[in-house]
Write a structure and sequence with these properties.
Number of helices: 10
CATH superfamily of the largest domain: Thiolase/Chalcone synthase
Order of helices and strands: EEHHEHEHEHEEEEHEHEHHHEE
Radius of gyration: 19 Å
Structural class: alpha/beta
Number of domains: 2
Helix content: 25-40%
CATH architecture of the largest domain: 3-Layer(aba) Sandwich
CATH class of the largest domain: Alpha Beta
Shape: globular
Strand content: 15-25%
Number of strands: 13
CATH topology of the largest domain: Peroxisomal Thiolase, Chain A, domain 1
Strand order of the largest sheet: 1-7-6-4-5
Distance between the termini: 31 Å
C-alpha cells in the first residue's frame, strides 16, 4: 500500500557549471559591445560556456550526483527523474534518460519538461505531487541548459545574455509544516512569439528575424520580455504569499530567475523588498534559463545564507511565456 505524505520539500541540492569563462572583455573582441554597456544593461560580467565536445547532460549528471549525495542517498534510491531544459542534447533520447544512465539510477521513470526559464519551478510542482500522493519517495529535478549552443554569436543583443549550467534538487517527504507550502504556475501562449528557439519548423517571420546562416538560434524581443518579466515576478511572488497567508515581510530570501539585473531590481521595487533579501549571482553566470534558480539556491545553501525554518520564495519567468513560484519553509539544517 502506498504511503501518502502531508509535506514534500527539497532534501538535497547540487550544481555544476562549465569551467570555461567568457567575460565581457572577451565579447568586446567578438561583437560591437563593451563591458560597461553590458554591465549597465544586464548586470552580467561573465558567463560559463560548455566545451563543444561536452554534452550538456554531463553537467546535469554531475549536479544530480551532488544533490543525491547531499540528500544522503544513492542514485538507486531515486524513483523518478525530471529534467527541465529548453536545450536538450537530443529530442530523443531525453536529457532525463541520458542522465539516468550516466548516474546509474536504474530504470526509474525519466522525462524532460520544457517551460523554458520557469522550468525548475514547474519541475518542483510536478515532483511534489508524486511525493504527497505516495507514488514516489524521492524525485530528482534537474535544471540543465546549454544555451550557448543556440546563440548567434554575431547578435550582440542576445549573445551577451546566455550561458550554460546545471542545478539539481532531490524532492522527498519532510516534516509537516516544512518544505513546499504553496505553489503557482501559469502561462500566456499569446505572448510566446516574444522568445523563440526554432526546432523542427520555422515560420517566415522567425526566418526573417534571424540574420545568421544558422536560423535555429534564440531570438527575443527584449522590451516586451522585460515588461512581462517584471510584472510576472511580482504577480507570482504575491500569489504564493497570499495562498500561504504571508506577506513579503515574512520572506527571508527571494531567489528569482537570473535573467537581467534590471528586471530583478524592477520587481524588487514593486514588491517593496530589501535587496539584502534577494539572492543575485547573475554577474557570475548570466542567464542559465531553468538552471539559474537551482544553481543560485545551491550557492545560497553552501554559503550558509539559509537556515532551517527560513521562508524562501523561488520565482521565475520565461519563454512560452511562462511564470511560476514556489514558497518553502526551509527544512534542511
Amino acid at each position: 500500500m502506498k504511503t501518502k505524505f502531508n509535506a514534500a520539500g527539497i532534501i538535497g541540492l547540487g550544481s555544476c557549471v562549465p569551467d570555461k569563462v567568457l567575460t565581457n572583455f572577451d565579447l568586446e573582441k567578438m561583437v560591437d559591445t563593451s563591458d560597461e554597456w553590458i554591465v549597465k544593461r544586464t548586470g552580467i560580467s561573465e558567463r560559463r560556456i560548455l566545451d563543444k565536445s561536452t554534452p550538456a547532460s554531463h553537467i546535469g549528471a554531475e549536479a544530480a550526483r551532488k544533490a543525491i549525495s547531499n540528500a544522503g542517498l544513492t542514485p538507486l534510491d531515486i524513483d523518478m527523474i525530471i529534467v527541465t531544459t529548453e536545450t536538450p542534447d537530443y529530442l530523443t533520447p531525453s536529457m532525463a534518460c541520458m542522465i539516468q544512465d550516466q548516474i546509474g539510477a536504474g530504470k526509474c521513470p525519466a522525462f524532460d519538461l520544457n517551460a523554458a526559464c520557469s522550468g525548475f519551478i514547474y519541475g518542483l510542482v510536478v515532483a511534489r505531487q508524486f511525493i504527497i500522493t505516495g507514488s514516489c519517495r524521492y524525485v530528482l529535478v534537474v535544471g540543465c541548459e546549454g544555451l550557448s549552443r543556440v546563440v548567434d554569436w554575431e547578435d550582440r543583443s542576445t549573445c551577451i545574455l546566455f550561458s550554460d549550467g546545471a542545478g539539481a534538487a532531490v524532492v522527498g517527504a519532510v516534516e509537516e509544516g516544512y518544505g513546499i507550502i504553496s505553489t503557482y504556475i501559469g502561462a500566456d501562449g499569446s505572448l510566446g512569439h516574444n522568445i523563440t528557439i526554432p526546432c523542427c519548423y520555422m515560420n517566415e517571420s522567425d526566418v526573417e528575424k534571424r540574420h545568421h546562416e544558422n536560423k535555429r538560434v534564440i531570438w527575443l524581443d527584449g522590451g516586451e520580455v522585460f515588461k512581462f518579466a517584471v510584472k510576472a515576478l511580482e504577480e507570482a511572488t504575491n500569489r504564493v504569499l497570499q495562498d500561504a497567508g504571508l506577506t513579503i515581510n515574512d520572506v527571508d530570501l527571494l531567489v528569482p530567475h537570473q535573467a537581467n539585473a534590471r528586471i530583478i531590481e524592477g520587481a524588487a521595487k514593486r514588491l517593496e523588498i530589501d535587496n539584502e533579501s534577494i539572492y543575485v549571482n547573475i554577474h557570475k553566470y548570466g542567464n542559465m534559463s531553468s538552471a539559474s534558480i537551482p544553481v543560485a539556491l545551491d550557492e545560497a545553501m553552501r554559503n550558509k545564507m539559509i537556515k532551517k525554518g527560513d521562508i524562501l520564495v523561488l520565482v521565475g519567468f520565461g519563454g512560452g511565456l511562462t511564470l511560476g513560484s514556489v514558497l518553502l519553509k526551509w527544512n534542511i539544517g
